[in-house]
Amino acid sequence: MNKILEILGEIRPEYDFSEDVDFIEAGMLDSFDVISIVTELDEAFGISIDGADILPEYFSSLTGIRQLVEKNGGKLA
Predict the structure, then answer these.
(1) Cα–Cα distance for residue pair 68/73, rounded to 1 Å
(2) Closest Cα to residue 76, out of 27, 7, 21?
(3) d(CA 22, CA 73)
(4) Three-state DSSP class for 17?
(5) What is the widest separation between alpha-carbon atoms in the chain?
(6) CB within 8 Å of 27: residues ≥ 6 apart
(7) What are phi and psi of 4, to 5 degrees?
(8) Which of 24, 37, 44, 72 is deepest in the core (most CB within 10 A)?
C-alpha cells in the first residue's frame, strides 16, 4: 500500500489519500489523474492494466487500487 500512496501523492500532492473517502466523488482524482496512475502502477509493479479495468470503482479508494494491481498480477509487499 505504501507504493500506491507514494504514487498518489506524487500525482496529487495536495490531497491526503489515507483518508477514507471516495477519491473520485471527492474530486481528488480526475480522468487525467487515472491515466497517470495506471502508467505509474504498470511501471512500479511490472504489470499491464487492461483498458477494460479502468473503471471508477478501482480508483475510488486505496482498496480498489490494490485490488486492481493484484487482479493484474502485481505483488504488494
Answers:
(1) 9
(2) 7
(3) 24
(4) coil
(5) 30
(6) none
(7) -65, -45
(8) 37
> What is the C-alpha R_g of the chain?
11
The domains found in the chain, sorted by start residue, are 2-71 (1.10.1200.10)
**Amino acid identity at 44:** A
Q: How far apart are CA 17 and CA 15, in angstroms?
A: 6
Query: What crossing angle do the helices spanning 31-45 and 2-11 adopt, rounded to 10°?
Result: 140
C-alpha cell belonging to residue 8: 498518489
What is the C-alpha separation between 44 and 21, in angstroms, rounded? Answer: 24
Stated pTM of the model: 0.92
Which residue's C-alpha cell is 475510488? 60
What end-to-end distance do the CA atoms of the chain give, in Å? 8
User: Cell 479502468 maps to which residue?
Assistant: 54
